[in-house]
Design a protein that fits this description.
heterodimer; A: 666 residues; alpha+beta; 16 helices; globular; B: 96 residues; 4-stranded antiparallel sheet; 3-stranded antiparallel sheet; 8 strands
Chain lengths: 666, 96
Amino acid sequence: MPTVPVAGSEKFAQQAEPLDLARTPGLPPLHQVSDEQVDALDPLTYEVLRHRLVAITDEMGDAIKRMSGSVVVTDCNDFGAGIMDEVGETVQVGLYNMQLGSSLDMAARWTLAHRGANPGIHPGDQFLLNDPWVGGGLHQNDVTVLAPIFHDGKLFGWTAAVAHQVDLGGVSPGSWSVEGRDVFAESIPIPPIKIVENGTLRSDIEDSYLRRSRVPRLVGLDLRAKIGSNNVAITRITALIEKYGADTVKAVMKRMMNDAEQQLRSKLVSLPDGTWSSIAHQDGARAGDQDIYKIVCTMTKAGDRLTFDFTDTDPQVDGIINCTLSGLRGGVMPIVLTMLCPDMTWAPGGIWRCISIVSEPGTINNATFPAGIGKASVNSAWSTQNAVSETVASMLGTHPELAKSAMSVCSGTWDLTLLAGLDQRGGGFVTMLCDAMAGGLGAKVDGDGVDTGGENCIPMGRVADVEINEFSFPMLYLWRREEADSGGPGRWRGGVGASSCFIPHDSPAESVHLVVSATGKTVPQAPGLSGGYPAATQWDVLVRDADARKQLSDGHIPASLDELAGTVQECPTHLETDLAPADVYFTHWQGGGGIGDPLEREPELIALDVRLKKVSSTGAREVYGVALTDDQFADLDATTALRRALRRSRAGLEPEPIAAAAGGLS
Amino acid sequence: MTARDIDLNLVVDADRQVHCRHCGEHLGDASTEPLAKARVHERPSVQAGPGIHVDPATLTDRPIVIRQTFCPQCLTLLATEIVPADEPSRRKWSLA
C-alpha cells in the first residue's frame, strides 16, 4: 500500500518558528526579563552563573548515566541534556549527543502551544515525547522528558533529558523495522504527554508507554534516569535562583544566547561571502531497495548569516531512512557547534538566530507524516550532517586561522548492528551494538584525522569495553580493531574506522536475532576535501556455518575472515536475520575523509601508516603511489617513478614517453 | 578583493581569478566557475583503491564512479568524489 497523507497529522508538524505569545492561549505566567536587565549584568556574576549552567548540563548527564541500566547510555553516552528559557529557546546543551539537543526548542514550544490549556503546565510536571515531528529526538527511539521550572508561580524555564531507548516496539526488535515502508511499521510516535504530575510519576501513562517495548524494565529505568536528571537540574537551578535572584539567573540565560549569536556573527563576518554546495548519498531506503537517494545542500554565507538551502533534495521515500525537520536541524547544529563555535558557549538559541534553513516539506530530510523515520537519526539526519560538514569545512578552509577548526566528514554514518533474543541468563534482551561509535574523524588542514576518534555529533561518545558487551549480551568477540584503508586517503589521512567480529555465545535459544542496517556500501559517506578521497565504504559480512568454535577449542583465535571456513554472505544495506551458534558476524564501519592530494603525503608517513596497519601496502601503492622496501620503509626512488606514472594514469592520461620521463619532466 | 587561499591547492588573486597553488596555472573565475579549466576524469569506483569493499554493481543498478578534478598543468588532484555516474557534480563553490 502506498504511503498516503494523514488528515489531522498537520497538528504535529512545525517549522521551528519562535513561539507567538500573543496567539498562544493557555500559557502559564512566564518569567521574563528586559533587555536592560540583561545589559546590566556585571561580568563577574555573568561568568560565574554561565559556568554554573554549563556544569548543570554536565551534571544532568552524570545523573542519566548513573541511573540508566542501558549500555547504550551508561557506556556509550547516546543521550543529551539541555536547559531552555521560558519560551523554549535552548540556552545550553551538554557535550553528549548534540543531535539530540538540536530540537529541544521545538519540543518545548509545541508543548507550550498545545498543552498549556489542556492538561496544563504546572510545577512538578514533566512531559514525555518521542514524536520527531514535534521535536526533541530524531527518531522514535529518542525519548525526551521535558520538565518546566517554576519560580514564584511563573514558568522560569525548561530542562530536558533525551536518550536512545533500545526498543519501543514496532515490527522489528530495536524498533529498526528494516522492511517498513512508513511510520506505522515502526514504534508509535508519542506527542508530549504528562508523565509526571505534581511530582508523581503517573503509572497509567508509564504503563501505556512501556507496554509497547520488548524490554520495558530497562526502558522504565531509563525513564526514571531522565526524570531524575531533570530533577537534578531543577534543584540546581532553583538553588541558583534562591542565591542570585530569578531575574539575574534569567538575564544570564538570555545573555548566553545573545553572546553566542554575536560571537558567531563576528566570526562569520571574518569569512568571505560565497556559496558552497555539497551532496550526501544513501543507498537503500528499506530491505530490498537498490536505489540511491541524495540530499543536496547549498550553503550561502552573506555578511553575518548562513543559509542552508536543501533544494533539489530527493522526495521522501517509502522506507525507514527519512527524517523530519528535527533530523535536518540535528544535521546542522552539531557541525555549526563543533566547527564554528568550538570557542564559545554552546547556546543553540542564539546560534539559530544566525542561520536560515530552506527546505521543502515532503523531502527526504524534511519528511511529512506518515513517512517512515525509524532510522532517521543515522540516515537522513546524519547524511544532512555530512553535507553540511562539507560546506562549512570548505568555507572555513578559506581562512588562515579558522581553517584549523575544519575537518573532512567524519564517520559517514552509523553501522547498525542490533541484537535481540535470550541472553545468557535466560532473560529477554535487545541492544544496539555501539562499537560504531569509534568512527574515524575527518582529516584536518594540518594533520590526520583522529583514528577511531568517534563521531563529531557526539563529542562524549564512547564504545563499551568488549568485556562489558560480552558480559551483558550473548556474544563472544573474535576481534575488535582498527582497519587499514578505512580512513580517506589524502595529504592528510582521514582517521581510520574499525571492525568487530563476533559469534553468538551462550544464549539458551537456538539463535540470536540480528538486524543490520547500514548505508554507505555503494557510495562512501565520508567524502574528502581538496582532492582527498572519501573514507572506505561500509562493509558487513555474515559467515554461515563457520568453524570459529572449532578453532577456539583448538586454541586459535581467528584473526581474519579468510581464516574462517564457512559460507560467506555479503550483507546488503538492510537485513533482518538470525545468527545460529555456528555463524560469525563481521561489521566494518567508516572512517573519516581525507584532505589534499594523496600524492602530496610524505612517503615516510605512508610507510609508517603501513607499519601501524593504518594503510595496506596495496593502498600505499595504488592510491598514495608509495613503493615500500621489504621491511616496509619508503623506497624513495621507486616512489618518485611510481608517483610520476600514477599522476598521469589517474587523470586518464597516457604514460609519459620514456625519453621525457627519463629527462625528469614532471 | 585581496588574494586568499581557498584550500590546500587553490588560491584566488585580487582579480578573483583562481590559480593552482602548486604551479600557478589559471583555473577559472572565483565568482562564476572557479574550476572551469580543470581536467575532470571518471572511472569505476572499484578502481578507487582498497577502500571500496564490495562492487556496487552487486547492490545497485546505478553505475558508481570516482570522479576526480585535476590541475591541467601539474595534475595535482583538486577534488575527488564517488557518486552515481548519472548525476552531475553538485560539489561547487563560488565567492560573492
